Amino acid sequence: MSKVYILVAEDDADDRFLLETAFAENGFKGKLEFVENGVELLDYLRNLKTEDANTEHPLPGFILLDLNMPKKDGREVLKEIKEDPRFKKIPVIVFTTTKNENEINRCYELGANTYVVKPVGFENLVKTIEDIRSYWFSTAQIP
User: Fold this and answer.
1) How far is Cα 92 from Cα 81, in angstroms, rounded to an integer?
2) What confidence tens digit (pLDDT) does each residue in 66-84 have?
3) Other CB atoms within 10 A of residue 97 CB
């Protein structure tokens, strides 16, 4: 089995650093791949060689997706991922500061697997990342 990795779409450099640190604090030994906007995320996925099961670049275990990014926002990216047969089974976790109920509903309608509001404070971030990892790598059954 290939090593599981997580793809993170986050345009803010400080948030990328905090996420990387929070995953490390949780003992995550896998790989975190970061992209800075929606265009980079879609390019990254499209450049994977998904036909070959033994490829060095398997699909990510899940995608952490910020909504408010330049070039192509998370909503557009989510829609495109879930409409693409190669990528629609990748769990997408919307990870954003937006708490608006209409926005949350819209993301689920577009195919989000989970919607998580970014916590305030580093200790809360570490706990949230622990919960996400535990659920998606230990509890959930993913096709």
Assistant:
1) 9
2) 998 888 888 999 999 999 9
3) 12
**Domains with residue ranges and CATH for the chain:** 5-139 (3.40.50.2300)
What pTM was computed for the model?
0.84
Q: What is the 3-state secondary structure (H, E, C) of 59-119?
A: CCCEEEECCCCCCCCHHHHHHHHHHCCCCCCCCEEEEECCCCHHHHHHHHHHCCCEEEECC
Residues, the chain, total?
143
Residues 6+ apart with CB under 8 A from 122: 18, 21, 22
Residue whose structure tokens are 């910020």: 66
**Could you tell me which residues are beta bridge partners of residue 5?**
31
Task: Give residue 38's Cα distance to chain centre.
Answer: 12
